[in-house]
């Protein structure tokens, strides 16, 4: 399977103590660059999160966002701290025994007293377990999104490979005739310029130049590189760097084909092949 370096995943968990959300997003990058934004209380989890991501990705700039929102006091799970409540009542009686004019505590006074209302707080271990579980869920969703995008890119590249091969097959039969026509034209010009000169020398010059403009070897290497691109795409895995190298090789052959072209059709074919290679190269930058 081929993976794109661009992807997104978002997962959430509803804990008794609050809501936990985790997002993963990535873009293409030369190396693996993992950044995480999370509450400082969870910072100790960063090495484990980094390890989980690096086990799935080799390249890409990945951003992980973790948010934890604890529940407010208005939730139904909030309870009264009865022990503190009885302590406040006892303190209030003691104070009024000494200070007869002292006002007793009202209900609002008691409810505003820190610690009277208790909301269930997540333990460090509970949060750690929940975050790591969410990370695995996010990575699965993230990997699926990257795989879907990778398959689209694979089909895009295979279509361009097939198109380049069609151009190569169409151009190849034209080469001998194009070279022969150019040889005849060149020979006529040389005879005119080398009147009275040795005809063998004239023939040697024509043959030498014909050798220089023969693109059969370039077309053969072009075919070989295209076959290798297909093989890599079908094999899958981390293909980005290998395909990027092959695009350089393909572009070199296309440039040589254009520089040696002695026929307008061959020249146009070279330009079209270079455009297709550039389209492929741009998309390959997104592959892991």
Automatic annotation (TrEMBL):
Domain Endoribonuclease YicC-like C-terminal: 174-288
Key word Nuclease present: yes
Flavoprotein is among the record's keywords: no
Keywords annotated in UniProt: Endonuclease, Hydrolase, Nuclease
Any coiled-coil regions, as ranges: none
Superkingdom of origin: Bacteria
Protein family: Belongs to the YicC/YloC family.
NCBIfam families in the cross-refs: YicC/YloC family endoribonuclease (TIGR00255)
Name of the protein in its database record: YicC family protein
Organism taxonomic ancestry: Bacteria, Pseudomonadati, Pseudomonadota, Betaproteobacteria, Nitrosomonadales
